[in-house]
UniProtKB/TrEMBL annotation:
Entry-linked PROSITE patterns: G_PROTEIN_RECEP_F1_1 (PS00237), G_PROTEIN_RECEP_F1_2 (PS50262)
Gene of this entry: OR14J1
Main subcellular location of this protein, as a coarse class: membrane
Organism of origin: Moschus moschiferus (Siberian musk deer)
Record-linked CDD domains: 7tmA_OR14-like
Family (UniProt): Belongs to the G-protein coupled receptor 1 family.
Record domain G-protein coupled receptors family 1 profile: where: 39-288
Taxonomic lineage from the root: Eukaryota, Metazoa, Chordata, Craniata, Vertebrata
Protein's name according to its UniProt entry: Olfactory receptor
């Protein structure tokens, strides 16, 4: 396998060489993946079918769920397959695509979270101008910018990372093609371009984080001036879940990408990689829908017998045409 990876691909070490632990890992990842798939598809379905949720906040939430769905699909299915087949080999082409989509979707997620925080700021601090500022055209342009920016970031990282000469065996101590782990394989002083791209990406993420923090400072200062406790509770129920998601995702990713590289991979390193690759896409649907009455009402409406009958009759009319 070492000879094979030195020519045409990489060897992902994963979590363990023990066969029983590999099966356990595959089952846990499969359950987690199905939960993330179900939760994010539900949010996409509800925000699409329920016309009461056709507002900027839920429009951005739908795209966040789509990003989460794609993000977890980049790494987890491949890891499940490797564990079940007891084979950690990944081809060069697969690794390039994995790095591109992973960086692109992660960057897009940071960008959409920034847009969502700005949307909440305008809704709470400038309510009279909200419909003018967050009009449908502006929302569409913001989402397009999010996806394009993420794609450019992924393209830069993939192009630079795979142009670096590698020394030694191509063994990656992760369950996916992780950029920091791949840089350990680079020949000395040959990855200055990747460091420059990573510094640019980090600076952009820091600007996004600063924008989010400033937005929430203004939001909370405005909320504290609301005389009604019911009004404050309603605002906190929509803002706190978003703030938790931002903090969790960026802190885990920041720890992984900014810490000094080590020669050996520890269980803590693998745990932190799970914190920003697997847990956020799985928990986001729960966080955003658990305390959101509009989302729960939309789910009840879609699952109701009357709504199901109405949709069925609508489809019959369409097929007859």
């Amino acid at each position: 396998m070492a000879n094979l990876t030195s020519v045409s691909g990489f060897l992902l070490m994963g979590f363990s060489a023990d066969r029983k632990l590999q099966i356990l890992h595959a089952l846990l990842f499969l359950v987690t993946y199905l939960l993330a798939l179900t939760g994010n598809l539900l949010i996409i379905t509800i925000t699409t079918l329920d016309h009461r949720l056709h507002s900027p906040m839920y429009y951005f939430l739908k795209h966040l769920s789509l990003l989460d769905l794609c993000f977890i699909s980049v790494t987890v299915p491949q890891s499940i397959a490797n564990s079940l087949m007891n084979n950690g080999y990944i081809s060069l082409g697969q690794c390039i695509l994995q790095v591109f989509f992973f960086i692109a979707l992660a960057s897009s997620e940071v960008a959409i979270l920034t847009v969502m925080s700005y949307d909440r700021y305008v809704a709470i601090c400038q309510p009279l101008q909200y419909e003018t500022i967050m009009d449908p055209c502006a929302c569409r342009h913001a989402v397009i910018a999010v996806w394009v920016a993420g794609g450019l970031s992924g393209l830069m990282h993939a192009a630079v990372n795979f142009s670096i000469p590698l020394c030694g065996e191509r063994v990656i101590h992760q369950f996916f093609c992780d950029v920091p782990q791949m840089l350990k394989l680079a020949c000395s002083y040959e990855f200055i371009n990747e460091i420059a791209v990573a510094a640019f990406t980090t600076s952009t993420a820091f600007i996004c984080l600063t924008s989010i923090v400033l937005s929430y400072i203004r939001i909370f200062s405005a909320v504290l001036r609301i005389p009604s406790s019911e009004g404050r509770t309603k605002v906190f129920s929509t803002c706190l879940p978003h703030l938790f998601v931002v903090t969790f995702f960026l802190s885990a990713a920041g720890f992984e990408f900014l810490r000094p590289p080590s020669e050996s991979q520890s269980a803590m390193d693998l745990m932190f990689s799970i914190f920003y690759t697997v847990i956020p896409p799985t928990l986001n649907p729960v966080i955003y829908s658990l305390r959101n009455e509009a989302m729960k009402a939309g789910l009840r409406k879609i699952l109701s017998k009357e709504e199901f009958t109405q949709r069925k009759m609508h489809l019959k009319v369409i097929f007859k045409l």
